[in-house]
Amino acid sequence: MTATARPARRLAAAAAIVLLAPLPAPGLAPAALAQSAAPAPEAAALAPSDSPPAGEAAPRLGPETNLPLPRFVTLTVDRANLRRGPSTAHRIDWVFTRRGAPLEVIAEHGLWRRVRDQDDSTGWIHHAMLRNWRSAVVTAAPETVLRRSPDWSAAPVAKLETGVTARLDACEPHWCLVETSGVEGWAPKADIWGVRAAEVFD
């Protein structure tokens, strides 16, 4: 008997954003509220955020792209098959249905990339569906609170429910600046997935 296929994986299908403040955080760059520019191809030069933090050993490089492994990328299509091996001949285990979701590339083979998601599921996906821009997904339950500045005493801007995805613009040791649906603010780094604990960039 043929095994029943796994259901499509949906990120943030029912997640919500609740505004807590009518204005953007003061001092933040206006460009951060604008639409994202077209993402660079996967093989493009990496941003400074992809460099290893000070004191850490340089990452190994992928045999196909010469880019660091592991590294975070973003899914840029509405539907992507996650396969057991690096070709269309391999079985589909999952179907990603959330454009903008962060994934971590952990291996390369030809035009295929082995990726890991926030639930630690892994599989192979075609490189054309990925781009080297940064995003994050809220993993805190039931929500995380965005603040006007990277400080617990800062005024709240919005609440993002578990599963909401956002563009990742900058990170400090304990906070990251994110933007989603025109709402921008600082989220506790521990509440999101798509950035390493020691990663700092702007």
UniProtKB/TrEMBL annotation:
Residues 43-54 have a biased composition (Low complexity). Residues 1-31 form the signal peptide. Keywords: Signal. It comes from the Bacteria. Residues 43-65 are annotated as: Disordered. This is SH3-like domain-containing protein. It comes from Rubrimonas cliftonensis.
